[in-house]
Amino acid sequence: MSTKPSSAVFNYRKINALAAYTLAISAFAFLLLPIYWLVVTSFKPIEALFVVPPEMWPHEFTFKNYVNQFDTRLIQLFQNSLIVSGAAAILSTFAGSLCAYAISRFYFRFKSALLLFFLASMAFPVPMLMITMYSTFNQLGILDTYWALILGNTAMGLPLSVWLMTNFIDQIPTDMEEAALLDGASPFAVLMHIVLPMVRPGLAASGIFVFVTSWNELLMGLTFVSSLEVRTLPAGITLAFLGEFEGDWSEMMALAVMVTLPVFLLFMVMQKSILKGMTAGALK
Question: pTM of this prediction?
Answer without folding.
Answer: 0.79
